[in-house]
Amino acid sequence: MVSVAILGAAGGIGQPLSLLLKLNTNITKLHLYDIVNVPGVAADISHVATNSEVKSFLSDKQLAEAVTDIDLAIIPAGVPRKPGMTRDDLFKINAGIVKGLVEAIAENSPKAIIAVISNPVNSTVPIAAEVLKAKGVYDPKRLFGVTTLDVVRASRFVRDIRPEVDAATLRVPVIGGHSGTTIVPLLSLASAKLELSSKEIEELTHRIQFGGDEVVAAKNGAGSATLSMAYAGARFADSVIRAMKGETVVEPTFIPLAADPEGAKQIRELGAGQLDYFAVPVELGPQGVKAIVQLDGADKVTDFERKAVSVAAEALSTNINTGVNFAKSA
Ligand code: NAD
Ligand code: LMR
C-alpha cells in the first residue's frame, strides 16, 4: 500500500505527472490536490485501467484531507518562469505556497517523504525544512528537492554530441543545486568513458546548467519545462517508492546534508564546505535517505569542475539563507 499526494496536480507538470504515477503499479492511492481544475483532471485520470484509486481535492478546505495518511507528497505547485526571469524571481509567490503546503503535510502526515519540485528549489527546500522543524516533525532523511531533470538533461545532452552513448543508461552525477551555475555536472565521473575535449566539457556544462532556459525561451511566455519534468518527477517518485519497498536505488537529489553527516564529508571537502544543503547522489532506503553515495574516483574531478563547485557553493549559500530567513520571519 503506497499513498501519494500530488500538490499542484492540475498544472503543467501536475497533470502529466499524475498520469505517469497512475501507471505506477506500486502506488495504491493517488491524491490529486490543486486550487483550480483538479476535479476534471482526477476524473479523467481515474479512468485509466490500473488498480490505484484516484481522489480529487480542491482548494484549502480539502488540503488537510488531501495530505492525510500519505507516504509521499510531491509538490509541483507554484508559478513557472517566463522569458527574462530567473528561478529566484519566483520566490515571492512560491515561497508562501510551499510553506503552506508543507505545514499541512506536517500536521496530517508527519512521517511522509516530501519531494519539492517548486522553484527556486535551492530556497524552497530550506523553507520546507524550517516549517517541519517549527512543527517538531523534521527528519532530514525525508526531505528532497527534485533535481532529476538536471540528471536527465545531462544524459540526453551528452548523447547529442556522442550518438554512440545510450541516453537511458548513461549516468552523470549532477551536484550542487537547481539553478544556473549552482548545477554542477561531473562529466569526469560519468558512468561511461566519454573522451570529451575541454571545449566540449565547457559547452556541455553550460547547456546542462541552463537547459531550463531553452524550454522557457521555446515556450515563449507559456511556462517552463513540464513534460520532461513530469518524466523526471515520475522517475524520482518511482525510485523513492521502490526504495520504500526494500530495493537499493540511487538518485542524485538536493537534500539537507544533516541526513548523513558522515557521508557528507566527501562533498564538503569537494567544495560544499559548511552548506546545510547540496545535491548529491543518494542511496534511498525505506525511510528516505539511507546514505550519501561516495563519488567513485573523486580524485578524478577536474580543476574545471572544482571551480564550478565553488561558484555553485557561493550562490547556494545566498539561496539557502533566503529560504531559511523567509521561513523564520513569516
Ligand atoms: P503551472 O502554473 O502550470 O502549474 C502550477 C499549478 O500549481 C497550477 O495548477 C496552480 O493552480 C497550482 N497552485 C498554485 N498555488 C497552489 C497552492 N497553494 N496549492 C496547490 N496548488 C497550487 O506551473 P508548472 O509548469 O507546473 O510549474 C510548477 C513549478 O515547478 C514552478 O515553480 C516551476 O518553476 C517548477 N519547476 C521545477 C522543476 C525542477 O526541476 N525542480 C522543473 C520544472 C518546473
Ligand atoms: C527547469 O530546469 O526546467 C525548471 O527549473 C524550470 C525553469 O524555470 O527552468
TrEMBL record:
Q: Which residues form the signal peptide?
A: none
What's one GO BP annotation on this UniProt entry?
malate metabolic process
Is the keyword Oxidoreductase assigned to this protein?
A: yes
The answer on whether this UniProt entry bears the keyword Cell membrane reads no
Q: Which GO terms describe its cellular component?
A: cytosol
GO MF entry, a single one:
L-malate dehydrogenase (NAD+) activity
Q: Where are the transmembrane segments?
A: none
Q: What is this protein called?
A: Malate dehydrogenase
Q: Which organism is it from?
A: Coemansia spiralis
Taxonomically, what lineage is the organism?
Eukaryota, Fungi, Fungi incertae sedis, Zoopagomycota, Kickxellomycotina
